[in-house]
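Quiz preparation item.
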């Protein structure tokens, strides 16, 4: 008896997507193709709702400022309020945590020599709430508990892809040792190619994004060796968020000697607020 990773989900977490949902703009010509692309996944998610989600995201100077910057932080609290990022909290439900599983993961992963920061109280921003909205819509309550797992990809130095993939494998081992048969999904969020400032603001690299998705599916170990400079050069300064997808990918069975994953959904769309949006569901 153990917790089982039933699927991994990957998606961009563009803040303007949340605004479009909150202001009921999803059917406008600019946004309709993007939201239509997520409809098959929303139906699949309704039919395959997990018992708990581990959601890997980056905090955007909301819970963590430049005074304290944890490389990896796990939310172990019972509830996480919605952050005010400058224009009021999004009108979405508070996030219910899973303190028992989160504490188990922290214990196991730290004993595997990963230094996690344990966070009992924090507000969660669009990095976490936009993916939930894309896959679950606008419910009165999120359909399952969510364990926030924050990664620093804002202030250098940031973790390597290799370290992120290894962390995912450590999380899987933690789940294997959990003594309750929970169905767990692990979500990797952020990306894809985009840059928000400087001369390359608005950068989109479709070829890089497509190759990244190909390699994430078929060659995650090789992909994990890609250096930071390649992310920045090819995907823009904010493209480094993609290393977080490797944490989710590291939890899958093929990296523990099991079968290769099945692609349930793959979607790519440009633009969404000067950003390339990518999405995968793997089982």
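Solution:
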């Amino acid at each position: 008896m153990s917790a089982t990773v039933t699927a991994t989900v990957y998606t961009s977490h563009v803040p303007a997507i949340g605004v479009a949902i909150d202001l009921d703009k999803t059917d406008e010509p600019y946004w309709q193709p993007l939201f239509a692309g997520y409809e098959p996944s929303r139906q699949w998610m309704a039919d395959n709702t997990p018992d708990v989600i581990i959601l890997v995201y980056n905090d955007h100077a909301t819970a963590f400022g430049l005074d304290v910057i944890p490389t990896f932080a796990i939310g172990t609290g019972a509830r996480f309020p919605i952050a005010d990022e400058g224009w009021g909290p999004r009108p979405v439900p508070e996030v219910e945590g899973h303190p028992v599983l989160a504490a188990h993961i922290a214990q196991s992963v730290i004993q595997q020599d990963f230094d996690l920061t344990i966070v009992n109280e924090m507000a969660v921003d669009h990095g976490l709430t936009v993916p939930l909205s894309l896959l679950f819509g606008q419910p009165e309550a999120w359909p399952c508990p969510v364990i926030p797992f924050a990664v620093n990809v804002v202030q250098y130095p940031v973790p390597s892809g290799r370290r992120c993939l290894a962390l995912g494998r450590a999380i899987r081992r933690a789940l294997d040792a959990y003594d309750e048969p929970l169905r767990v999904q692990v979500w990797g969020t952020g990306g894809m190619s985009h840059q928000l400032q400087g001369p390359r603001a608005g950068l989109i690299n479709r070829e890089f994004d497509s190759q990244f998705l190909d390699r994430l599916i078929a060659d995650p170990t090789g992909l994990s060796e890609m250096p930071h400079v390649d992310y920045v050069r090819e995907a823009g300064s904010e493209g480094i968020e993609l290393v977080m997808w490797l944490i989710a990918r590291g939890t899958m069975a093929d990296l523990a000697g099991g079968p290769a994953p099945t692609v349930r959904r793959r979607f790519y769309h440009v633009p969404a607020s000067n950003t390339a949006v990518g999405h995968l569901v793997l089982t």
